[in-house]
Amino acid sequence: MHCWKMLVVTLLCSLLLCQTHCASLSQPEPQLVRERRMTPFWRGVSLRPVGASCRDNSECITMLCRKNRCFLTTAAE
């Protein structure tokens, strides 16, 4: 009888130990960056003129962002 109790306690402990090992936290995954969405009205109002600073083409009224500035034409390459 004592042997059965020890076996049950051992199995229970190993089961709990396995559960805690499997539940260990891994490295968090990087957050996905969500694109900014605007209505056509606000997109038109917020477009930047030629020469203004920009981060990407969608911010410029000419849709040409080069070297963090809104350009009128593309440079011949």
Can you tag this structure with a few keywords?
mainly alpha; two-stranded antiparallel ribbon; rod-shaped; 2 strands; 77 residues; Omega-AgatoxinV; single chain
Molecular structure report:
This protein is mostly helical and 77 residues long. It is rod-shaped, with a radius of gyration of 30 Å. The chain has two helices and two strands. A two-stranded antiparallel sheet has the order 1-2. The protein has a domain of 38 residues: Omega-AgatoxinV (Irregular), CATH 4.10.40.50. Helix content is 36%, strand content 5%. The model has no long low-confidence stretch (mean pLDDT 77).
SSE topology:
Blueprint: H1 2-22, H2 40-46, E1 65-66, E2 69-70
Antiparallel strand pairs: 1-2
* CATH classification, class level of one domain: Few Secondary Structures
Structural class: mainly alpha
Number of strands: 2
Query: At CATH's second level, what is the architecture of one domain?
Result: Irregular
Gap between N and C termini: 87 Å
Backbone shape? rod-shaped
CATH topology-level name of one domain: Omega-AgatoxinV
Largest beta-sheet details: 2 strands, antiparallel
What is the share of helical residues?
Answer: 25-40%
| Order of SSEs | HHEE
Number of discrete helical segments: 2
Fraction of residues in β-strands: 5-15%
Give the strand order, joined by hyphens, for the main sheet.
1-2
Low-pLDDT sequence parts:
none
Query: What is Rg?
Result: 30 Å
